[in-house]
Design a protein that fits this description.
The complex is a heterodimer of chains A (about 90) and B (about 140).
Chain A: H1 3-59, E1 66-69, H2 76-91
Chain B: H1 2-16, H2 24-29, E1 35-44, E2 50-58, H3 61-70, E3 79-85, E4 100-106, E5 111-117, H4 120-143
Antiparallel strand pairs in B: 1-2, 2-5, 3-4, 4-5
The chains are: A mainly alpha (about 90), B alpha+beta (about 140).
């Protein structure tokens, strides 16, 4: 075996070794990539949902925090408007 | 990742939920069948000021007569207002007493509205609110 032949065999061996390593590593790498993508997508969804929620909260002009009523079926906005209207009535 | 989502989702829901607490005055009248009772928490009365409001609406004239007797309302028309004790709103208190309810009974609507006053700033803001309404009404009248 001359030096050239040895180098060719060495390269061949290296390539096969690399291929084997790739075959072992690839599924693990693929799994990790899937997890990373899922995590990124989830974070993106949470961010969009959070942004939409707070944007909705701040863009909706609301002049009260919460309303409770002992009867069902009366919109909460009605009572807030009523609280405002009664203050107006007294000045008329 | 799933674990993270399982932790994050309830936390976000918790952060987004609003705590609902009923005022004692609301709780006292809410079981009454002849009244429609409502509370408005955090009602905006100024740029930064808020107050709590309780509204009692009599469903019929008999309930209104009873409500008037209960709160010692002796007039029969227009609006009757007074400063009421925070625990016993029928009892009249001096203007400077804090906390107190500013009560307004509107005969035409068979409604008594209570505005909680904790600070002088809130009382002033309520007055400003009414003055603003008065000015707006004057403007409307002048335009006609």
């Amino acid at each position: 075996m001359d030096e050239k032949h040895f180098e060719e065999l060495w390269e061949q061996e290296e390539r096969q070794g690399l291929q084997r390593r790739l075959q072992q590593e690839y599924p693990r790498w693929q799994r990790a990539r899937r997890v990373r993508r899922t995590a990124l997508a989830s974070v993106a969804v949470l961010l969009v949902a959070g942004f939409s929620f707070f944007n909705f909260q701040f863009s909706t002009p609301k002049f009260y925090d919460s309303v409770a009523c002992n009867r069902n079926g009366i919109a909460e906005g009605h009572w807030a408007a009523e609280a405002s209207r009664i203050l107006t009535i007294e000045t008329l | 990742m799933k674990r993270l989502l399982l932790i994050l989702t309830p936390l976000m829901l918790l952060a987004c939920s609003h705590e609902e607490t009923e005022l004692p005055l609301y709780q006292r009248f809410a079981p009454r069948q002849d009244l429609t009772v409502a509370q408005v928490k955090g009602f905006q009365i100024g740029d930064t000021l808020k107050t709590d409001v309780v509204l009692l609406v009599a469903d019929d004239s008999a309930a209104w007569a009873e409500l008037k007797a209960e709160f010692d309302i002796r007039t029969s028309e227009g609006v009757t207002s007074w400063m009421g004790d925070i625990d016993e709103p029928a009892r009249r208190v001096k203007r400077a007493v804090r906390p107190a309810w500013r009560a307004m009974a509107v005969h035409a609507d068979r409604t008594v509205a209570f505005y909680r006053i904790d600070t002088e700033a809130q009382r002033q803001a309520l007055m400003d609110y009414q003055l603003d309404n008065l000015n707006q009404n004057h403007k409307k009248l002048n335009q006609i």
